[in-house]
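User: Run a structure prediction on this.
Assistant: Running it now.
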Amino acid sequence: MTYSRRHFGKLAAISLPVATAILSNPRLLFAEPKPNSRFGGVLVGVITPYSYHGMPNDAESLLKFMIKDNISGTEMQSPPVEEYAGAPKAPPFGGMRPTRPVLGIGVGEARPKPTPEQIAAQKARAEEMSKWRLAAPMTRFVALRKMYNDAGVDIYGFKLQLTLDMADAEYDYAFNVAKALGANQLTMELPEDSNVTRRVGGFAAKHKVMVGYHAHLQALPTTWDEALAQSAYNGINLDIGHYTAAGNHDVLDFIQKNHTRITSMHLKDRKFKENGGANMPWGQGDTPIKEALQLMKKQGYKFPATIELEYAPPEGSDSEKEIVKCLAYAKSALV
């Protein structure tokens, strides 16, 4: 093998035994660095597969994207996690949320309601998944964690929606998967029924794993109060874009007041309610993304900030390219 001056410079800077080992295995000299998206002490991750819409969304492909894009943390939704572990794949309308988001949605614009056929498919899917989950070993989830960690990516959140009609064993399954993945939080949409958050909070306390509840346009400063009072393990998966589009102008104050109960913070740029509430490319909306990140850095808050891509990529681009732009925007606020 031919070595450049730069490679010899690297060898000269290390000890003779280590240099000898590298010369006997030259691939060590050319090893790619692991991704690192922690800037100014703030971990900037991405929610997967949701943000990589229009791209392959299996666990292996998502990991390749994150390594390529220099992202070292993720909140993972259940489909790629469970499919890696051997779960039956979802039919086209088997899930409650589409793989590709409803892009650019404004305030007052409702997501399309499912048809009776889609509702029936969702019910059949839930029954199929419940049966699979109650028999699933944790070994494959541990293997997924190792694959990601070995590549330099931490899975800090696992998203799975829990409902009242699920058995206790399925609740235990959700928290056991989160722990097997190395996640410090389970995330889910904030339910309308407070009986759900009470029950989930009880299981969270049993497993000593925080739950972060994600809100959309119902988000107000008091939206999470009841859930937080029900359990010390109930927390806030704050989406500062949705919070802004809901008409709130106090994002930074809300973060400061509730930082001890925020498990993670979703990043997107949306217009204020009075300006239409639309999702925008970062820097073109009303959401104080940079200020929120700088607050996290200044105060040393430990929860991660999660890129959630929802604006439509412009002509000639795609979701991965836009995620890279979002990461660069976040980095510029923190370094």
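The chain has a mean pLDDT of 89.
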